[in-house]
Every structure is written in C-alpha cells, then in structure tokens.
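Bit of a strange request maybe. I'm writing a small parser for structure token strings and I need a real example to test against, not something I typed by hand. Could someone generate the tokens for this chain?
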Amino acid sequence: MKKQEIIFSNKSMKKKVLIIIFIFFAVIFIFMSFNIINHITNFNEHKEYLKRPVEQQQIEDWMTLNYIKRHFNIDLQEKLWDKYFLGDMKITLKDYCKKKKIDCREFIIFLQKK
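Reply from user aminoacidic:
Good idea to test on real output. This should exercise your parser:
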C-alpha cells in the first residue's frame, strides 16, 4: 500500500478529516467577517474626520480603545491601571464610559494630557 492509502484507508476517515478542515476554515472566516463588520460600523461614519491630518485629530467618544492606543500612541494600560481596569480594547470610548459609569468628557481630557 502507498502512504496516502494507509493514512486515508477508509472513506469515512477521509470525510471526517475534510469536515474538520472545513469547520476550521469556517470559524476563521466568521471571525474575520466579524472584525471587518466591526471596523466598518465603527469607522464608516467618520470618514471625513479620518481624512484630516493627524495634528488636527483629537480623541472622541466614538473611537475604540484600541484605536486610541495605536493612533494617539497612548499606553492605556500604564496610564489607567491604578484608576480604571481595561478589559475589551475593541469597545468604543462611549461604551467604556457607560460601563464604568464615568464622565466621558473628563475621561477624554484625562487621556489627552500626555
């Protein structure tokens, strides 16, 4: 017998392996789709704002924590570790403020101080 015939000696084994591979790629596809949809819904409304030069942009409540961290080069974990706990970095600043019951304007001012 050849090597390939030994590995997939029966059709049911081959079918199971193909189903597992299909499920794996389906899960990856769903995960990627969710991230793309999340990105589109968060940033599509703000295309004009994002076209501005970086110097004219400020932190706003529709931005995600991850975007603020990357775009404004703020180490949120270090800056907020004592006062607030950061969990999900993909939530918007507005949702984060609601969750933590803090005033978003004051929080934005706090973040903009470098």
